[in-house]
Amino acid sequence: MFFSQCFLRITWLVVRWEHVSLRRAREFANKMSKVDFTSAWPGVHMNVSVRLKGIFTAQKGYFKAFLPILSSITYYFCLWLILPEKGGGLVSFSHEELGVLVNTCIGRRNDYALQRDDGGYLRAGRVLTYDLVLAHLAGRVTLGTYVIDEQGGCRFAVFDCDKRGGLVDLVDVQERLAADGIVSHLEASRRGGHLWVFLASLVSPAQLRRWLLPYCPEGMEFFPKQDSTLAGPGSLVRVPLGVHRLTGERYPFVRLDRSEWFRRLVPVASEVGASLAWLSTVQRVTPPAAIPSPEREHAQDATKKNTLQKNVAVLTRPTARMTIQEWCAQQDALGVIGRYVVLDRSGLGCCPFGWHHSDGKDTHPSLWVHEPSRPGGACWYCHTWKQGGSVFDFLRLYYGLEARELWQRIQEGGHL
């Protein structure tokens, strides 16, 4: 009886130890598969998690009978399966390595968004910390960053092609940029890809859009979408090198590998640490010293009309103590703006401010002119730009003048 009890106790301890080993193997494999691109990027290696899932599923029917043997085999097989790809040990990141990602691919730092399991995003409304960046790289959370930072500038621009085969289209854009001396970098995504242009210094979103938006073909998005953050935080993009919550996959930066017979896209690195090292070496682009302002170009086209009075006979001259809002209240919004834009019966027309439209031209009427809700208030709105203003705002943008200069000329009788 004594020996029987000892045998049963030893058997129970062995089974218990083997059960713990199996659980640790699962946790270890799951943790490792979230750190390395080689276990998640299709075409580089098979997905480790899929292989492990098959192992655990195969064990399920024979769990009780063969647990002491199979769980140990599974545990050491997991080590053999993963460690050669990882280089051994768990991956950790220094403050400097985290800083590479923050300084290169993070826009706004006093706010961020978290990706949900359905692929959507939830705005956090809090300051981004290095602990969150580490959690992003470890796959515990997935961050989204607002392209325009808290100072109203951008340190990068992104072309987004969210469709099957989108990387191929982005390669075309990349080659067009390269032809003009603009270096860009491809990142794969769930359905297409992103093309990043990293900047040597902060650039205003309006200036950035004037410079790079002409390279964006129809059917592709360009970030930032806004000229400012007056109406909200602006455009959001997924921070690279993390795990997409909807697919559970990591999508790396890729490069075009040209051979004698074919071209293919290959990851720039096989794991996160190496990707951060590569990211620290990317070339940052300096925008041209003088980017042509569409406002000034439009103003030059308008100089042949010489005066506001010649174009807009309905404008009235303000009195000495009249404010701009009071002056706007005296104007016929449809009559004034209708001298510059062909409007239909609903007040719709093509926006003349082409710098926030694809290819610099509004091909589908997006400008709506309406009666202001209050005297001297907003009377026009561009649905593409998602901004609008008063009669005075329209004239200021149309002629490319500062508010003080335009007001002075209106007071002097409208002479330009």
UniProtKB/TrEMBL annotation:
GO-annotated biological processes: DNA replication
Question: Which species is listed as the source?
Answer: Ktedonobacter racemifer DSM 44963
**Matches recorded under InterPro entries:** DNA_primase_Znf_CHC2, TOTE_primase
Keyword Transit peptide (UniProt) = no
List each copy of the TOTE conflict system primase domain by range. Answer: 128-255
Q: Which residues form the signal peptide?
A: none
Q: Where are the transmembrane segments?
A: 61-83
Q: Matching Pfam families, A to Z?
A: AEP-TOTE
Give the record's keywords alphabetically. Answer: Membrane, Transmembrane, Transmembrane helix
Q: What is this protein called?
A: Zinc finger CHC2-family protein
One example of the protein's molecular function in GO is: zinc ion binding
UniProt keyword Disulfide bond, yes or no: no
Identify the domain of life.
Answer: Bacteria
